[in-house]
Design a protein that fits this description.
29% of the residues lie in helices and 29% in strands. By secondary structure, it is of the alpha+beta class. It has a seven-stranded antiparallel beta sheet with strand order 2-1-5-6-7-4-3, sandwiched between helices. The two termini are 21 Å apart.
Length: 145
């Protein structure tokens, strides 16, 4: 089993610790927004270590929409490269844990449909896209077969 390396960001470390330490009964929202988050567990593409990231909860049926916004930063978040290298992830949604496989959505109409769902779940995504020159990547996480 690979080693777990917590995030360098304190709020991310604290959120993951609370969410997972409570078995998905606490730490379920992004800071003080009141909006729900999930925990995405993946493998680091350089270290091979286990990485865990709280992301906004946006769903499309039984699938999860993962938006690599990084607050509208000019660069993709590190986890974007992790998912590109290894699409197998685990998603904790409250007390449920799902084995999923992700793919980056490149089809324009599918991406727009999923983007609209994500923005409805977390309206700041649109502000983030407006302030960056990069197209913010969207992944869909589907149940692993």
């Amino acid at each position: 089993m690979a080693e777990y390396i917590p995030s360098a960001r304190e709020w991310v470390r604290d959120q993951v610790e609370l969410y997972e330490g409570s078995q998905g009964t606490q730490g379920l929202t992004l800071r003080d927004t009141g909006l729900p988050v999930i925990i995405v567990t993946n493998q680091g593409n350089k270290t091979g270590a286990i990485r865990k990231t709280p992301l906004m909860r946006a769903v499309d049926g039984g699938n999860y929409i993962l938006v690599a916004s990084q607050g509208g930063s000019p660069k993709h978040p590190v986890w974007y490269y992790n998912l590109k290298a290894d699409p197998n992830v685990e998603i904790r949604d409250k007390t449920a844990v799902h084995s999923m496989r992700v793919r980056e959505v490149v089809d324009a109409s599918e991406r727009k449909r999923l983007w609209d769902i994500a923005v409805e779940a977390y309206p700041p995504y649109q502000e983030y896209q407006d302030k960056t020159d990069r197209v913010i990547p969207v992944f869909i996480a589907e149940p692993a077969s």
